[in-house]
Amino acid sequence: MKQVALITGASRGIGKACAELFIENGIVVLAPSRSEMDLTSSESIRNYIASLDCKIDILINNAGINPIANITELDFETSHTLMQTNFWAPTLLINLLAPQMKAQAYGRIVNTSSIWSTVTKGGRGMYASSKAALNALTRTAAVELAPYNVLVNAVAPGYVHTELTAVNNTPEQIEQIKQNLPIKRLAEPKEIAELIYFLCSSKNSFVTGQTIIADGGYTIL
């Protein structure tokens, strides 16, 4: 029987690359739209999971938002939405799907974190906080679920060639970022997807509880 992966934020960027790669490798992908599962609504998340008639073997918590705001300029309604999308929604999805994974003695969970969870930049206070919290959740979930052959990891990308990067950086800033990276370019979404796929594949039988940074050397400078 084919494995089934639930991927959030699969309409573009890293999530889309993951969905395409998983499908290429024979995995059934569930990629709910916002109308099917609204990550800002716990009720919507619960209803979507309850509606499923198949088991979930793989969960990729990829969806995230990153509105830029300095600490003195925060809009707390926006900040609440950010934390709900980036942290509470992944927490609830793990909470809802972990019992089934434990029962079948198999599961793979990958949370898409960010380099801003370990380093930071002006205007990223809430985003960095949400991703740091996601890293902590990853570690604890990994400890709790490891006895059941459920492995939980996070991938923390640096600058990736996505719409979100283009929204938050001007073309001139992106060129400067490239020059400052040891690898001299941004990552392509599929490169990050390949790492996520490995963590979810049968080739990974031992790595758990890790936040793996994939940033072209950005954070080692």
Summary, kept brief:
By secondary structure, the chain is an alpha/beta fold. It has helices at residues 13-24, 42-51, 76-104, 125-145, 163-168, 171-180, 189-200, and strands spanning 4-7, 28-30, 58-61, 107-112, 150-157, 211-214.
Structure commentary:
- This protein is 45% helix and 13% strand.
- The protein is α/β, with parallel strands linked by helices and 221 residues long.
- It has one domain (4-220): 3-Layer(aba) Sandwich (Rossmann fold).
Count of structural domains: 1
Strand tally? 6
Quickly count the helices: 7
Average per-residue pLDDT, rounded, comes to 97
Helix percent reads: 40-55%
Q: Span from first to last CA?
A: 46 Å
Per CATH, which architecture? 3-Layer(aba) Sandwich
Strand order of the largest sheet: 2-1-3-4-5-6
Query: How would a crystallographer describe the biggest sheet?
Result: 6 strands, parallel
Radius of gyration: 17 Å
CATH C-level category: Alpha Beta
Walk me through the topology.
Blueprint: E1 4-7, H1 13-24, E2 28-30, H2 42-51, E3 58-61, H3 76-104, E4 107-112, H4 125-145, E5 150-157, H5 163-168, H6 171-180, H7 189-200, E6 211-214
